[in-house]
Amino acid sequence: MWFVFADDSEEREPRRHGLGHLVGVGAVLFPETSLLDYTEGIRSLRMELGVPPEVELKWSPPGGSLLKTGDGNAIRTPLRKRMLTLACDLRARSLTVVWDRGSLEWSVPDTRRAVLKYLYDKVSLCLEGLDDHGVVIADEPGGGLGDHKAWLAETLPLTDEGTDYTKPARIVLPITTAPSHHIPHLQLADLVASATTAAIAGNRYALELKPELVALAHRNFYGRIGGAGLTLWPPELRNLFHWVCGDDVYIRSGTGAQLPTPGLPYEDSDGLPESS
User: What whole-number distance in Å separates Cα of residue 134 and Cα of residue 173?
Assistant: First the structure.
């Protein structure tokens, strides 16, 4: 059995040229046997770096958090790198879907529904490849009880009916939510969703985590991340799999295309400002 922890993110003003408002959702899959080891590893990491248990390890810490202070700034990147490395060492893997509303401008609610369906597909396919089953736990929405109920209502059809591509066979229970404050695995899901979306956007702090994000990302049968551990929409953005993940080929339905692909955005450069 695998436990899947999910969270969402967005980047409203990407630094990477040619992108609009990005909406992302990410998940980290842990084998059941590694859950306690990750909890213990994070506890030890907190003690080593002087991060009290009450400080939530969020990508965007709230005002007043230790991670917003000078001392927190000094340890923030090493802390994040080691969170990702710890999960990787414990055989966890990540899946992230990022949608560019600048290329295909659906409403934000419609986009969130779409990326959630894509993530459900990717989790199901990953579990199928592992020949195992999973339970999905998502961070509670921040908008209160109404948003919480609305989010759960959106997930129920997935559990009952699946999608056009996957049936509800591998995810064994309805998607549930929990507060992330005391669940380190959900805090990792926040980091993965936020940092991956931010890396696509060109955020320099997220790009500092690229080696660890790439190591944790799920890969397809051919060893590539694009379309497996990271999905971008619309598909014309696939050259970013080369610049962000290091993929040299994009494979879909068994057919490969060289990356960067001529005639598509980011054929000749990563689109980042020269000062990057």
Answer: 8
Of 3.30.420.10, 3.40.50.720, 3.30.450.20, 2.60.40.420, the CATH number of 2-258 is 3.30.420.10
Q: How far lies 254's CA from each of 84, 100, 222, in Å? A: 30, 25, 10
3-state class percentages of the chain: helix first, strand second, coil last, to nearest 5: 45, 20, 35
User: Which DSSP state fits 28?
Assistant: E
Work out the pLDDT band at 162, boundaries 50, 70, 90: low
Other beta carbons within 10 Å of 35: 17
Is the C-alpha dihedral spanning 100, 225, 210, 38 positive or negative? positive
Distance, CA of 150 to CA of 152 (rounded, Å): 5
Contact 156/25 with Cβ under 8 angstroms?
Answer: no
**Residues 227/250, Cβ–Cβ less than 8 Å:** yes
pTM of the model: 0.92
- For 33-60, what is each residue's pLDDT tens digit? 999 999 999 999 999 999 999 999 999 9
| Alpha-carbon span 276 to 266, nearest angstrom | 16
In this predicted model, what pLDDT tens digit does every residue of 219-251 receive, in sequence order? 998 999 999 999 999 999 999 999 999 999 998
Q: Where do the H-state alpha helices sit in the chain?
A: 35-49, 70-89, 108-130, 145-161, 184-201, 204-207, 210-216, 240
Asked if residue 220 lies in contact with residue 231, where contact means CB atoms within 8 angstroms, the answer is no
pLDDT surpasses 90 at 157: no
Taking CA atoms, 245 is separated from 170, 171, 266, in Å, by 27, 27, 14
